[in-house]
Amino acid sequence: MLSPLLHDDPETVGRYRLLARIGSGGMGTVHLARTPGGRTVAVKVLHPRLAGDPEARTRFRLEADAARVIGGRYGAGVHDADPAAPLPWLATEYVTGPSLDEAVEAGGPLPEPAVRAIGAALAEGLGQLHRSEVVHRDLKPSNVMVTAFGPRIIDFGVARAVGDAPLTRAGSALGTPAFMSPEQAADLEHGPAGDVFALAGVLVFAASGHGPFGSGSAADLLYRVRYADPDLGGVPPALVPVLARCLDKDPARRPATGELAAALTDGTGAHGPAALLADVLPDAVLREIARRGDDVWREPPHRLPPPPPDTPPATGPAAPAVSRRKLFAMTAGAVAAGAGLAGGGVWAWLAGRDSGTGGTARGRTTAQTVKPPARLWTFAVHIPNARAEVLAAGSGVAIPAGIVLCGVNAESGEGSWQADLADGWRYAADGKKLYALRDPEEGDTLAVCEIDMTDGQPGKPLAEVPDLAGDEPRNQLLCVVKDIAYLAARAASGGSWYLLALGLGDGRVRWRTALDAARQQNEPPLLCAAVTGGRLLRFRSDSGLSSFLEVTAHDLADGTQKWSRSEPYDGPPPTRIVHDDRHFYLGADALTAVRLADGETAWRFGDLRDVGDSAGETRLYGAPEVRDGAVYCTEGDRGVVSVDALTGTLNWLEKGLKNRHLNRDEAPAVGEKYVYSLDEQGLRAVDLRTRTAVWTLPTDATVLSADTERGRLYVRQEKETFALPLD
Amino acid sequence: MEGLRQDDPARIGEYVTLARLDPSAEAHLVPERRYLARTADGARTVLVSLPPRGADPARWAAEAQWAGRLTQPGFWPVTQLGGSAAFPWHASPYRPVLPLTAALAAHGGPLPERTVRLVGAALAEALASAHVLGVAHGGICPAAVLLTAYGPLLGCFGAARALAPDGTRRAGVPGLDAGCLAPEAAAGHPVSPAGDVHALGAVLAYLATGHTVPERDEIPPALRGPIAACLSRDPAGRPAPAQVLAELAPGAAYGTHTAGTEPLPLPGRVVAALSDQSVRVLTLELPAEVR
């Protein structure tokens, strides 16, 4: 409903301070705005590009006049207007709605008493307009707002005085074909009777869920409006005769507004002056009314920042443009361990221990009582920023670097090998060992191998599944827990996909269960998975809805699906599931805990919190981390919050943080003394006892990986990965 | 919502008062004085609470401090504490709210059983999660429950303690609804979870009949059992909030009622009253002399 102001929207219009955008149409943009006295209004401002167009200015003045004529009972009361201003504007009451089409979408066709009440009130409103010699000319469900007290007609953008010569471009193209009158469709004079025709169309829609002439292309609709009989299917029988009369092709045979209002009130007796529309509205519509009346009081969204400069500085070849398919094809032919990596288009190489460059300090380091710790080691990898995690496996650390995986000695930071493992979904570590799916070149059937952390070479297959395809690049090694590997893989024959649990000790398949086919040609079927609390939990991007995550839980013992739910999600999809043995956690508009047992929301944190100023960000809560019964994540730009993992109550909020833009994509890392979090100034350590930041290390890092076993924090930034002690 | 009277403060801290939330005729049943107020620049609108006349401001302020630290689901969030020891207040961002007394007035009488169950389940769940942590509310009465579009929130935290210290008789103290005080709380015992359950029973009775002390026959038959159990004179005989929740919303998952993520289905007139309040506050202007 409300969207953020754009960076070039003005601060104020007249004496109104703009808060948010309500919508934008052909003529102008409607803003939510406030007077100096705190009154909230809707301000429509003519598009700047039309400000010099006399015809547009005339139409804007007519709209303001029409809005004044209909007034606050049947329309949105006019607060003030200045059609003569350099940028003409019109301030009216903000009617929260929902609009009639939103109401029907929420609750289906309205019951007959509601249709009658809405119809009678709209007829009276139009009558008032017509008595002042104005016709609306664009009545449609989205221009009718439903309130508890009756419908309101908004948007008089194409209204004009009866008998006025049409403005040059004010022909049929301006109306809405589905609710146009036949005379309007024929480019003839649309008078008051034309509004009656449109009103009947709106009521057919309200009563049946479809317009009288259906939907389709504008040309089809224009034809049907002029020549076809209206479709009154689904309209309550008692309303059919009067609506059919209103939809007569001959304007002269349609009833006038007064007659129509009387006909609609007849027979019910309920529509007296004391009756409220709310009394006859279905629950779903009442809930939409209540929702909007409450939501308008939330903090308005923050103004969007200006777009970035046209061409961001390039660092090496433009990596995102290279498709994963192409990369895969490239690596599939490449040789393992360094050989042949000098060819064109290959942009990852080992640089061993890097001590001299130190090119990370940018900006001034402020005086701090506690200094950031010195780096334990730095490993240079000249790759574009990636969001791949650094994996700890026994004595080594595996760092994904574009088309290879680099093995690094965890103590010295020295690079020891690189393996031909491009696709992050084909390998996984369990903290001690690194496992990978066998290279398609090496065998036809699916197999899981251990990667030797000293030389990066795959060992003999630990387990093999003959009827699953080994050459499917999208096969996925989700995780390895207690010597059982969890995989998503395609059958050797046919296109079916399976989710399976494969014992690595005995090579035995514990269970397998069908998985919907992978949707994307070059993406694996799932985002990530985790084993916890007797469940295998998996995330997937919801079909066609990039802002939703599909979360599904399987019984760990036999793979049966226990539950599945969809979660709205902003920002890059998670690469890791944050969980304890009771819940998993997501940060978005709120911090949410979902029970592993039944997939129900255990708690939500943040719904009623004022998260303060967070310029241009719609995401209020960042990616979370959980440790020792507390969930940590960023809250707006206020800092890190610690929330009780069991109950969702606030433990504490970081103190004294100002003027930072916090990184919402990367979860904080939690040590014994500090919680580490990224912001635009670098890596910040927040003392768990004093709840204040003790130091900030300047870095443009994008990945934080905590290695609690070894007490290390791996930080990945533009051209290097370095290790800090995890205190 | 009602216009300001001569004896109402014109300013509270940085806020200019605009209207009363509660009608003056009901002041003796409301444990706080509640105002709609706005910053002088018009930017923020809040709901501000003051101690009722005659109450000890220091004790009231101490309860407000506690309320400000709680982030219990289903509790009205107190986001700002202000004033002085002699004139304490607390404030929260405004959103449309109807004290249950106003909700019944808008509906024209007791609410339908379905609504009683939904509102009651949310209140029982809020108490269940507070009691687990050892937090007793100690101020529940119809006027203390603020109904929003997304469900009820428990305001007036600690009112019984704030208005009459433990050890003194609470029956008859202005601001405390006698029908909501458990016998032991009225006699001056410390506020307790069992006292909250008694008050919950009284609120349920109020929703279903319009009185906090109903005749048995007035209560819809299906609600008689849980309400009577809550109103038991013996604190040990009252159910835990989780049991009340289970009776009001059989089979529903715990944690779903106070989530407040979706609007509650409410009767048309109650929605109309919420919506009317929202529109009225949207259109309110600060008095010209402060601008």
TrEMBL record, chain A:
Basic and acidic residues bias spans: 292-302
Residue ranges constituting the Protein kinase domain according to the UniProt record: 16-274
Keyword set, alphabetical order: ATP-binding, Kinase, Nucleotide-binding, Transferase
SMART domains: S_TKc
Start-end of Pro residues biased regions: 303-315
Residue numbers binding ATP: K44
Region annotation (Disordered) ranges: 292-319
GO molecular function: ATP binding; protein serine/threonine kinase activity
Protein name per Swiss-Prot or TrEMBL: Protein kinase domain-containing protein
Originating organism: Streptomyces fumanus
Source lineage: Bacteria, Bacillati, Actinomycetota, Actinomycetes, Kitasatosporales
From TrEMBL, chain B:
Record flagged with keyword NADP: no
KW Transferase (keyword) present: yes
Keywords: ATP-binding, Kinase, Nucleotide-binding, Transferase
SUPFAM superfamilies in the record: Protein kinase-like (PK-like)
GO MF, one example: protein serine/threonine kinase activity
Domain of life: Bacteria
InterPro entries: Kinase-like_dom_sf
Protein name: Serine/threonine protein kinase
Phylogenetic classification of the source organism: Bacteria, Bacillati, Actinomycetota, Actinomycetes, Kitasatosporales
